[in-house]
Amino acid sequence: MDNIKKMLENPIARNAMIGLGIFFIVVIIIVLIASCSGGARYTYEEIEAKMISSAKKYYEANDTNLPSKDKDKVELSLQTLIDGGYVKETAKITKDKVSCTGKVVVVNNNGNYLYSPYLDCGSNYKTKYLLDVIKDEDNIVTSGNGLYKNDTGYIYKGDNVNNVLILNEVKYMIMSIDDNGIRIVDTTKRGSASWDDRYNVDKQGSMGINDYISNNINSRIKDTLEELYNNEEVYPKDIKGYFTTSSVCIDKVSINDVKNNDGCGKRLDGQVFSLLTANDFFKPSLDENCATNNKACTNYNYLSSLGNTWTITADKDTSYKVYKITSGNLELKNASGMASYKIVAYLDKNVLYASGDGSEANPYVVKTYLEK
């Protein structure tokens, strides 16, 4: 006691003790404020990511609730995640201290799951679906370059149409939108491949057989597409979930009918990756002469920029020829020949918009949440 009394009588010691006391009081106040405010504050995008990680944890404990069939989907509400202790109430963790509603949509795409969060924080923030951004009324045109509305959905026409898209650093072009999702074609420059190089009995040589698939035996080009899809380095499991299956037209078509072959008599269901059909090449052209002159179809046509590439369409009048886009023109070539190939696929309707306006300088970017 005497020592404490002496310290208090010493002005320097007394001031030091008072200062130390004030310091501890300030620390306690800061801790209390942080505790009351819920700790760390997150951006809305960070909360979306937390919703996905929380949903994955939820389904680890409730895996029987996951969609089991291709194209099936389930929805998990944000409130369920909050009630289960997987995530805190948004008012406690948003920087704006606002209460939000939301959900996580989980879609089974060919056995791979797409986790798609949706967050609604009123005027502060709302998650955007890529589909809604693309088909916004301001983007629809009735003449010139752009996105046209038709009986089945939407289609891009012209050569400067702001349809560029980036998914996981890979560049695509959006072709159309229909009930199945967003149809895209990739622009990656790959090595050449043959459509098929098997021995053809009709030609008595290795000219190839122009059956895309027959008796459950794939053509070489179909094998190539499947090998690429199954390559985890090129398409990680998380990214595979962004692509939905579709029904692919594998009609064989005569040269005189190729432009007008809008229907399809033979389809292959449950496909993820495919190629352009021969008829796809003509559809984007805005040249009025395209109706009577195939070469004119290369004009005002963004697909002309793809270069030489195989289509999925084979010749009806031979057993070995296939349609190939060559220097912007559509030609029949031997299946055994070599050419590049451009993947055509559908993005799921539930993929999210991150940024961009579809132009070359500012492409649409798909919002992704990849596990690290």
Q: How would you describe this protein?
A:
The strands form 6 sheets. Strands 4, 5, 6, 7, 8, 12, 20, 21 and 22 form a 9-stranded mixed sheet that branches. The protein has a 4-stranded mixed sheet with strand order 14-16-17-18, with no helix packed on it. Residues about 30-40 have low confidence and may be disordered. The longest helix has 26 residues, at about 10-35. The chain is globular, with a radius of gyration of 29 Å. The chain is built from 8 helices and 22 strands. With about 375 residues, it is of the alpha+beta class.
Notable traits:
globular, single chain, alpha+beta, 9-stranded mixed beta sheet, 372 residues, 4-stranded mixed beta sheet, 22% helix
Largest β-sheet summary: 9 strands, mixed
Count of separate DSSP helical elements: 8
Structural class: alpha+beta
Radius of gyration, CA atoms, in whole angstroms: 29 Å
Distance between the termini: 60 Å
The ordered string of helix (H) and strand (E) elements is: HHHEHHEEHEEEEEEEEHHEEEEEEEEEEE
